[in-house]
Amino acid sequence: RRDGKDMTELDWPEILLRLGAATLAGSAIGLNRDLHGKPIGLKTLGIVGLSTATVVLLAVQFGEPGKITDAASRVIQGILTGIGFLGAGVIVHESERFRVRGLTSAACTFLAACLGIACGVGQWRIVLVALAFAFVLLTIGRSVEQSLACRGAISRAFLDHRLDSITERSV
């Protein structure tokens, strides 16, 4: 207890584990972005994970063990709002000729922040499952999107051809 308030005092190994896991989780997502030549990568998303976990750890230190207080909840809300601005910067920076670009990188920034929050409160199963799903999406997502787009283009070409043949017959 400090100043009459309950306080969760984390020991050094727990602090190192939570901050290290957040840094690694964010960096892993960032490495994927680097490997795809995207503007946001390992260092940036590693820092996002580390910084969010740091702020959450500070908020958790002043609460009851195992509970997220109102103050910690407000800290998390503030983090996610700020991350929205960082993600918007990725999108705006990449925009050219009214094309929206960088949405996946912005989403990865948001994910790195969420992973940092989860690491900060020590929710390891959530971190592992979220990372697994993220890597599945980032690995197969593009090929699934391209396959669907190709099928959509084939369907549109078929319909266009059918409409042209109907129009020719009626003329």
Please give the structural blueprint.
Blueprint (H helix, E strand, L loop, with lengths): L11 H24 L6 H20 L8 H25 L8 H18 L3 H47 L1
Order of helices and strands: HHHHH
- Residue fraction in strands: under 5%
Taking all Cα atoms into account, the compactness measure Rg is 22 Å
Distance between the termini: 88 Å
Describe the global form.
Answer: elongated
Structural class: mainly alpha
User: Mean pLDDT score, rounded?
Assistant: 80
Helix content: over 70%
Q: Tell me about the biggest sheet?
A: none
Number of helical segments with 4 or more residues: 5
Q: How would you describe the oligomerization state of the chains in this entry?
A: single chain
Uncertain stretches: 1-5
Q: Could you tell me the number of beta strands?
A: 0
Summarize the structure.
It contains 5 helices and no strands. It is mainly alpha-helical and about 170 residues long.
Considering the chains and any ligands shown, give keywords for the structure.
single chain; 171 residues; mainly alpha; 78% helix; elongated; disordered N terminus
Can you tell me about this structure?
Helix 2 (42-61) packs antiparallel against helix 3 and helix 2 packs parallel to helix 4. The longest helix is centred in the C-terminal third of the chain and has 47 residues, at 124-170. The chain is built from five helices and no strands. It has 171 residues and is mainly α. Helices cover 78% and strands 0% of the residues.
